[in-house]
Amino acid sequence: MATRTRQMTTAQRLFLLITLFAVVLAVFWFVSGKGDALQPAPSNPASAADARQQLGELTVAARGTMDGYDRKKYPHWDNQGNNCNTREFVLKRDGKDVKTSADCAPTSGSWTSIYDGETWTQASDVDIDHMVPLGQSWVSGAKAWTDEKRREFANDLTRPQLFAVTDNVNQEKSDKAPDQWKPPLVSFWCTYATDWITVKHHYSLTITAAEKTALESMLGRC
């Protein structure tokens, strides 16, 4: 009887060790960003008061040049788990009734662009826009960053930095700042300003005097 008790205890210990190992693996998988459960939604828009305070904290400086700029210096799109990269993750997040294939490519759904209010039913009709464009970040401080920090910026799912928008509107925006381009949907100007300020403030990017004036004007619509 004593021998059986020891054998049962050994089996139980082995089972507990296997279970513990499985739990540790699961925790590592989620914490390392491979599980959708921990993928953040974009932050809620900042209040106008908070945005005005952050705007006042930004450094005003002349806009730099595009010398040396290359989109390859902003590695994207990163793997976000479940066969989805950052672009595909945003398409799923921002769309309605989105269905995807096994490789995460959208097969159906609809997307309403925050910039112009237009709704599209083909993923090919929308782009994933960087609220603060990559080129705009380059001329306002990111030129001095490491590639890893630029990777973080280009794949940021925590700040209000990535959105699915009408492709030709995104192309029209290009790398322009708010003093050079504003969304066609005027009712979005307040959120556009607060989001822009939130991103620039988090990454300590500079703004020009003209850019600051444009942002202040847009905040006036909040």
Question: Could you write a compact summary of the structure shown?
Answer:
With 222 residues, this protein is of the alpha+beta class. The chain has helices at 2-31, 48-57, 86-94, 134-138, 147-154, 167-173, 189-202, 209-219, and strands at residues 96-100, 106-112, 119-120, 126-130, 162-166.
Characterization of the model:
This protein is 42% helix and 11% strand. A hairpin with a 6-residue loop joins strand 2 (106-112) and strand 3. The chain has helices spanning 2-31, 48-57, 86-94, 134-138, 147-154, 167-173, 189-202, 209-219; strands at 96-100, 106-112, 119-120, 126-130, 162-166. The model is unreliable at 1-6 and 14-41 (pLDDT under 50). It has a three-stranded antiparallel β-sheet with strand order 1-2-3, covered by helices on one side. The longest helix is centred in the N-terminal third of the chain and has 30 residues, at 2-31.
How many beta-strand runs?
A: 5
In whole angstroms, the N-to-C terminal distance is 78 Å
Low-confidence stretches: 1-6, 14-41
How does the helix and strand content classify structurally?
alpha+beta
- Count of helical stretches: 8
Q: Compute the gyration radius: what is it?
A: 23 Å
Strand order of the largest sheet: 1-2-3
N-to-C SSE string, H for helix and E for strand: HHHEEEEHHEHHH
Q: What proportion of the residues is helical, as a percent range?
A: 40-55%
The outline comes out as globular
